[in-house]
Structure formats: structure tokens, C-alpha cells
Amino acid sequence: MATVTLRDICKSYGKSETVTNVNLTVEDREFMVLVGPSGCGKSTTLRMIAGLEEITSGQLLIDGVDVTDLPPQRRDIAMVFQSYALYPHMTAYHNMAFGLLKTSKLTKTQVDARIREAAEILNITDLLGRRPKELSGGERQRVAIGRALVRQPKVFLFDEPLSNLDAKLRNHMRGELKRLHRDLGLSIIYVTHDQIEAMTLGTRVAMMSKGRLQQVDRPMDIYLNPANTFVAGFIGSPEMALIACRSDQRGTIRHNAFRSAVELKADNLPNDVLFGVRPEEVSFSRTAGMAQGKVEQSELIGAEALVQVRLGDELMMVRCQVSDAPQPGSDVGLDFDLSRARLFHAGTGQAINLVRE
Amino acid sequence: MDATIAERPSGAGSPPAIKPTRRRSLRSRIASCWLHLVLIPVGLLWISPLAWIVLTSLKTKIEVFDPEAGFLPAALNFANYPATLAVAPFGTYLINSILVTGSILIGQLITITLAAYAFARMEFPFKKILFTLFLLQVMFPIYAIFLTNFVTLHEFGLINTLPAMIVPFVASGYGTFMLRQSFRQVPAELSDAARLDGCGHLEILWHVFLPLVQPTLIAFTIISVVTHWNDYMWPLLVTNSDDVRTLPIGLGLLAKSDSGADWTRLMAGTTIVVSPLLLFFVIFQRRFIDSFMHTGVK
To answer: Which Pfam families match (chain A) (predicted)?
Structure first.
């Protein structure tokens, strides 16, 4: 296993730049998830690490060795594709053996031993004689992972490997991947657009948008302290409410719907800020509350309810117990959990450092 | 109340319930039959020239022109076959035909796979213009370039040699186009996977692309073999001695014998010429049909 370092990696097609100055270090045995909306450059970044796309500028190191200009087979990586990319004319066994025989000097018995071992881990021993079209989606996925495992590469690359599976199987395979990572101690770089995959699988999550890294952090840190409004909006469902407020230098935040000013400590606050609140950080007040809102609609989703509340000109979601959900149209008082509140610069969208007590 | 309601449909409905199923089975039987009613005459029509050729080749010369004689020969007369083989060296012609058709096919398969891969999967300058030129070659009738081809071969001193019949056909715009379309349907992720598995372009072509476009290759093989096996004009133009001639020219010799066409021998010759192809087709029938269904070539 190994570390992967990306230094100022850029990729441009003609004049349009799809990946800009990505700096990232993936530690040994780390599960790094690259996440972002489609077209954010995450797949391109992964393909550059794989060697399938040329790196326009910058440097790529695997275990400290510069591999920027090396062809894919000399980078000691293996990749699992979204469509599995199994060779349709070969059996599962030959799919796994093909690359191994080509890239290593192992004898056929050694190759066979590795395939049996990987098949054992992935529970596909009975499927080795079948061709891809005789396998179900989940089985194909396992064979594709097996093909990567037998190579015993320094780094595993996954390009949205679960998005072709149905919801139930996806949950199951997510668990499997987590188990593989934990049991075998793999270094993994994993691309997805699904925030749940990112949150549940990643040791760290690298959030990308418009070809740039937005934030690299542990999943819960990203969730609790997003670096900017883009990350705040992308991670978390329903998304974080961003309420446009006025503030003064001392940290007094005002909004028409607030009964009194909210006091938060920060240095050099701008005049216009966005007050970020997640649905579970708001509660309905039995008294007047910190702010006054009107319930627009309320959705009961089994264990809990999601209530949409209008706060002046803005809408926000509140997560609460089903029994606490107020009727649409009623006026409600809201309390914010200020210990988790965050402020963003209204102009740049960047998070503002608050002084926590 | 409930009982009567329940009884009525079952009591009144059961006898007519059998009738419709009978009618239906009759209808479906007719439906499947009329298809055969159409197909059998068409099939007979298609096979009749072939049957006529074989039967005529077994008749005597007198029988052919005798209006009294029936459709079938009075006695099977196999003497026409050795007699035909005596008129011209058909053995040499057969070998030449195999050599020419085989060499063209091998040459074409090599050139079209390489060209089609480049057009389907690689980026290079003037790609579009070059591909248009390839397509233009398909649109040109072969007769339009007979003269220039002849002059070129003459310059190389290849007239009246086997290569004269092979060289002009070792590349095929049509084959390149056909294969390029098939290559483009191979998912790009497969070649990515092959690159990660340590394959270069030629290995990707060999291990991934070619196995996946087998139906297209077979379809093209049939088209190419049939075209060049039966080609008459070009071999006639560039050959003038027996040792390099091909089968169709041998047939031409029979038709032009001094006393007009020698029908029995001509038909025996025709049987000899078409039988290798027919045999070829019968053996690989299923694969051929599969591949044509696959590629949508009709």
C-alpha cells in the first residue's frame, strides 16, 4: 500500500480547464472519496491518477516516485469502472487473470492461487467459469473488484462503482467495500456523486466543484463545518438553510424574522453574512423562540417529519418528531442550536471562523 | 343469489369456451402455414437454377436439346465432369482462385482492422478528410478505375501474374467503414481496462476489439470471398495464360467454344465452380446467418 500525492494537477482540453490546481495527499491505507456534482472534474482527476488521461501540468507521486509521465500499467494501480468493463468474451476467471499475466511475471500456478484467494474473499468462487453476461449486476461488480484485488496494487481506484446497482444492492456492496478496506488495509481513491457513499465510506472526503478542490476533511468535519456555501449545500439532505442576515463588527446578527439579535463571536465580520443552519439544529419553541416563522408544509417520513418553514423571504427545513410537527399555515417560534451555527461571507461564500466558547 | 350468479357463467359459458380455443388454434395453424405457403415456392424458385445446372450437367448433349426429354436426365451421365476438366486445367484454376481469394481476404482483414481501429479510436490530423476519402472509394464504381489500375500494374510489370489480381483489392473502403462502425460500439471503458491491464494499441485490438466484432468480420469475409471468387472482368483483363487464370475465366472458355456453348460441360464446370462456396456456406450456415442478423447487413 502507498501514499498518493497530487501537486498542482491541472487538466485542460484546448482552452477550457476542467481540473485546476488540485493539491491532495492520500495517506497509506486511507479511503479517500472524491465527491462532487457531475462535471466537477472528479472522474478526470481519477483518470489522471490512473494514467488514462494525460496530466496537463503538475506532478503525481505514488509512494514518493514521480509517475506523472508513466503509462497506466507501470503505475502499480488497479481500477474498478462504473460499467465494470469486464471483457465480455472472457470468463470471470480469465477476466481476473488477463491483466495479472500481462503485467506481472507470476507463473500460472501463482496467478491461479491469487484468483482463488480473491474469489474466496469476494464469495465468487462458484462464478469463476461464467462469462459476464451470465452474471447479475452485483456479481459482475464483485468480479470487477476481484480483477483489481488480484493485482495487489499500491492503490485502488474506484470510478462510481455502485451507481449501476439497485438501491438495495448498493447498500450491501457499500458495506462490502468498507469491510474490504478495513480487513485488507487497502489504499483507495473513490469517486462518487453520492453524498451518502462519501459520508459512509470515506476516511476523508475531498469535495470538488468546477474543477477545484473545495474542502478535504473527515466526513463529519465536512458535515459540521463546511468550508463554503457550496459544500454546505451539497453535503446533507435536506440541505443546510442559508439565511441572509446583516451583522455588525461585534458579531451581532440581525434578521427581520429574528426576535432579537443573535450574538456570535468572530473577528472582522462583513456586513452581509449567511447564517447556516441544518434541519436538525432547529427546534420548535414552546415559548416565543429566537425567531418567528410560518409553516408552509410538513412531510411525514416515517420516524421523523420534515417541516418547511418560511422565515421572512427565506425557506428552511426543520427536522422534528412526527408528534411535534405543526400544521401547515400555523405560526411557530424557532430555536437555533447556536453551538453549531456557522456564518458564511455573503459575497464569497467562504466560511467565517467563529470564536467558540 | 350468490349461487345462481356463480352458476350462470360457468353453466352457459363452458361449451362456447372450447370453441374459441379450437378456432384460435386453427387460426394460428393457418397463420404459420401461409408463411410456409409463401416461403416454399420462393425457396423452390431460388433453388431451381441451381437444380437445373446440376441436372443439365448430368444429361447427354442430345438430351439437352430434345423437347421430348423430361426434367430429369434419363440416365445419370457423369462423363461431363472429366470431359470438362479435360477442356481446361480446372485444377490450376481452382488453386489460383483459392490463392487469389485467400490472399485478398487476408490482406483486407489486416488493412481494414488497422485502419478501422485508427478511425474509431485514435485522434490524428486530417482524420475526417481521410475518412471521407475512404468513403469516396466505396462510392466509385470499380470499373471507373480499371484503366488506371491496369496502367499502374503494367508499370510494375505485374500483368499476367497472380499479384495482378490481388494487389488492387487488398484494401477495402467498405470493410473499413463497416468495421469502424462496429469498433465504435465497443465501450470505451473496455479499452481503458485493457490499458490498465498492460495492453498497447495492437494488443487492445487483438485481445478486446477483434473478439467482440467477430460477427462483422464473418459478414465481411463472406462478402469479400463471394465477390472475388466470382470476379470475372478484372482477372480476364490482367491475365492471358492458363497458369494464372481463375475459375470464372475457365467457365468463360467453355461458353466460347467453337461450336457455340457446350451446355452440358458448361453446367458441369459451373457446378465445380460454385460447389466450394456452397459447401463453405452449408458448413458455416448458422454462424453466417447469426452474423448477418448481428450486423444488420442484408
So the answer is: ABC_tran, TOBE_2
